[in-house]
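To: structure desk
From: M.T.
Subject: fold request, one chain
Message: Could you run this one when you get a chance? Sequence is below, nothing fancy, just the single chain.
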Amino acid sequence: MRNSRASVVVLTSTGLHVRIEPISPHTFHVRMNRTGCFEEPSPLVRLGVVAPYPASVCWETKMREEEMDVSTDSAALRVDRRSGELSLYGEAGTLLTRQNRPPRAGYGTPASLDAAASVSDDGFETQFALAAEERIYGLGDQHDTPLMKRGCKIAICFRSGKEVHAPIPLLLSSERWGLLMDTDSRHEFDVGCSSPDVVRIHGRRGELAFYLFTGDGLAGLLQKYAELTGPAALLPVWAYGLAYNCNQQATARDMLEDALNFRGEGIPCDMIGLEPTWMDRQFDYDGPVDWHPDRFYLPQWLPQGAHTFMGALRTAGFKLTLGLYLRDDDEAGQQPILPENWYDYLKPFVEQGVLGFNLCTKIPVREMAKIPVPADDSSDDAESLPHSTVVGRSIREGFASQTGRRPMIYTPIGYTGIQKYAAVWSGGRSRAHLSVLSLGLSGIAHMAVDMELHIAAGIHFGFFQPWSKVNSWAYWRHPLLLDPELLHLFKTYARLRYRLLPYIYSAAHVAARTGLPIARAMPLVFPDDPHAVAQQNQYMFGEAFLVAVFTDQVYLPAGEWYDYWTGEKFTGPADISYCVPKHAAGPLFVRAGAIVPMWPDMEYSGQRPADRLELHLYPGGAGEFTLYEDDGFSFGYLRGELAVTSIACRDDRRVFGVEIGPRVGRYPDMPERRTWDVVVHVLDKPAAVKVDGQAWRETNGSRKEPPPASWSYHRKTGTLRLLVPDVVDRPTSIRLENALTGGREVRRMSERQRSKSRPNVGRRTTGKLEKDIEVGLETGNTAKALSALERWWSVRTTEAGSVEDVREYWLVMNGLFVRMAERKGWSLHEIVGGDPLLRSRFQPTDSVQDAYNSLAQIAAHIIEYGKRQGETYGIVRQTTDIIMSEIDCELSLHAIANRLHLNSSYLSRRFKQEIGLSYSDYVLEKKMGLAKELLLAGSTIATAAERTGFKDASYFNRVFRKYWGVTPGEMRS
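Reply: Done. C-alpha cells follow.
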C-alpha cells in the first residue's frame, strides 16, 4: 500500500492496482489497472464533464486484516486487498452495495500496454450484487426500455442496434447508491439480465474507472450527480414556451408566414427554428457560411435591422434558432477534432439576432443505430460519445462571451455532461414519455420529444414536457393545419402552458440547483409507494401536477387530489378509470396543498410585465412553493441577480391559511409593485376571509376590478378570489386566512378498495348540487330539485360535527331559497300562505331528519307556487331545463323546437309570454352571466368562450363587449 496527497493505492495479490480518491464526503473516484500508471486527467475530467476537486476532503484509512477502509464523514469504501473487491457503506455504517467477484481491468492507455500483453486482455469488467427488491434507474435513453432497468442490457453507445439519443453511464439504485463510469468509450451494463442478482459492467479496452457515491433516495443521488458533473443549464425563459421548427425547404417568406399564423390564430409561441438547409453550403466547422442566397436573401448594404426577416420575427416576439449538422467520425471512427475558434463562424448570425442553435445528425438517430459495428478492434470503442457535448460547450461559452445571454442549444444526441450546455430532443416515437422520464433520472432535466399533434393524447403530453417543440422537418405540422377540434385543443394547451411559465421556470431553477428534473418519474417523488413506483404512464410535472399520458388508467398516491379539468376532488391511494372531458386531451390532477403561480394570457414570454400574477391555491394539505424570478435571459442569476419568494399554505380543515413571503433579492427591471390575484379552489364558500388579521368584506364579483379589501366567491367555478397588493422590500409576509364552512366534498377510496370509477360519475361538489337545486326550482322540475337537495343534505350532515353545524347548513339552504324567491319578486311567507304547519318549518330544529323534511317541503312548495303563478311549466320548463344544462352548446330556437316536436314560432311566443324575455335574449343573458363569472374567477378568454358555447373566440369577444360594455380581457384584468 502507498499513499499520495489525495488518494490511496492498493496493489492486490492478483497484480491489480486499485486507486481510491475521496473527492467529496459522499463520493469516491475509483480507478483500476494492471500497470499502476494512472494517466491524468481521467476521461471525464479531460472532457470537462467532471471538474477537478480540491484535496480538502477529510478522510482516513483503517487496516482490518486483509481489508482496508477509506472513510469520510458520510460514507466508507472497503477494499479487499487480496481480490480488489469493493464494498460501499453509508453514513450509519449500512452496507449499500458490494462487488461480488474480483474486478478485471486492462492496461489503461495504449502507451502503457505491456509488450507481452494481448490487446484482447486490455478490457475491464466488474459486477455488483443486487438485493432482492433493489430497483435500478438511469443509464440514459434507449428506445423500448422501461424506466426501471433491472432485467435490461444497456449499451453505452449510439450504434447499439437500438435507437439511442443519450447513453448516460449513470446508474442509480433504490438502495441509495449510484455509479458513474469514467470513460468516453463504448461499454455495456447488464442489469440483472444474464444473472438476475448482479449488475455487470464491461468494456473492451482500457482501465476500469468509475465514481461511486451515496445519497438520500433517488432525488438525493441526482443531486450528488449534479454536484459531481455540474447542474443542468438554465434555459432562457422563452425556451420553456413553445418552439416550432419550419419545414426544411422553407424560405424566409414561408418562415414569416408560419410565424404570423401563430399570431393571427392567437396561439402562443416564442421560438422558431430552421433546419440546416438555411445555409449556402454544408457547415463543416472549417470555414464561414452564409444565408442561402435564394431562400434567405439579405441585402448586403443593410443586412441588419427591423426591415430584415429576422427583424420582422423580433417585432412579432419570435426568437430564431438555426440548425447545424454535427460532424461525422473520421474514417477510423475517431472523434472529430474541431478547429480552434470555430465558433467565430457563427458570430455574424448571432450579431444579426440568432438566439440559439439546433444540433442535428445527418443520419436520423434511428438509422444510425442500424449501422453495423466492425467485428475487429479498429473502431468499435472510439465512437464519438462526447462530440455533441464538446460542440454544445463551445457554442454556449462563445455565445455567452459574445452577448452575455443564455443561448438555446438543443441536440438529438448527447453523453454525460451534456446537461450543462444543451437541451436534448428526439423525433416522434412510441412511448415517447419514457425518453423524457429516463433522461430525467439520468441527470438531463431538459428533454423534449417532437409533439405528435395529430392526436389529442400527443398534444396533452407534448405540452407537459420540460420544453415543448413542434417539428415540421420534412412534413407540414403547423397547428393551423389541424382539424378544428384538434386546433381548439392545441390552443387550450398552448395557452395553459404559457400561463404556467412562472411555475415551470421555477421548477427549472430547482433543476439547475439540485438536479431534480421538471418531469419527475413516480419513483422520484413516491419511492415508498410500491404501486406508484411501478407506474410508467404518469409522472409529476413539478411539485403540483400529476400528468397521465397515453392511458385512461390513473393511480393517485396517498393524499387529496383535484381533477384540474373538472374541479372534482379525490382521495388516494386510488386507481381510476378516467373519462377525459371534451375540452381536454388527457388526465391532469393537482395535488392538495399545491401552490401554482400563473401569468396572464400572453402570445410570447415578456409580452406583458410580471407585475400581476395569479396565485392558484388548492386546499386539503400543507404545501410550500418557491417562486424564482430573474431577467429571463442573462447569466445574472449566477451572480445572485434574482428574486425568490417563498409561499406556504396550511389547512386544518377549519382554516386555510396562506403566507406569501417578501421577495428576497433583486434583478434588473424587476417590477417595484405587484398584485397577487389569489384564486383559492375552496369548492365551498368560506365563512370569512382575513388578510394580515383584518377581515375583508364580501362582494358579488360583478365589478371589473374588485374593490380594495374585498373578496368574492364564484359558485360555478368553486373558487374564492381576492386581489392582494404587494411592494418590493416588504419586510414581512402577507398572511391570508379563509375560515372554511366545513363542507368539503371528497371521493373517498381506501387503499384496498381502489374501486374502478369514473371521475364524472357519483357524488359531486356541494356547489354543483346547489346549482342543480336552483335549476330544479327555476324550471319547476320537482324530481331534479329534490334529488339534488337530498344528496346535498347527505353530504353536509355526513361531515357535520355538531348540532350547530346542522343548523348552519339548514340556514344556508334557506338562504338559497330566499335568494331564489327574491329574484322572482316573491317572499317565503307569501309562498307558504296561511299554512301554520309550513310556517313553523322556518324555525331551526336539532333533528337532522326534521330539518331535511322542512327543506324538502319548502322546495316543493316553491315549485307549486311558481306553477300557480304561471312562471314556467310544460314546454317552457323543458326549454329552460335544456338551456341550463347545455349552456356550453349552440342553442338555436329551431333546434330546441325540433327536439320538443314543436313549431319554432309557437315555442317563441310561449317562451316570451311566460318568461318575459325573448328566447334569444334569455339564452344570451345566461351565457353572458356565466362568461362574466368565469372570467372574474380567473378563467382564460378561450375557456370562457368554450364553456358558453362559442367556437369562435373573436365572435365571443364582440358579443361580450356589446353586452357588458367591456372586452373579456378588460373584465379579467
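Reply (cont.): The two ends are 73 Å apart (CA to CA). Let me know if you need anything else for the meeting.
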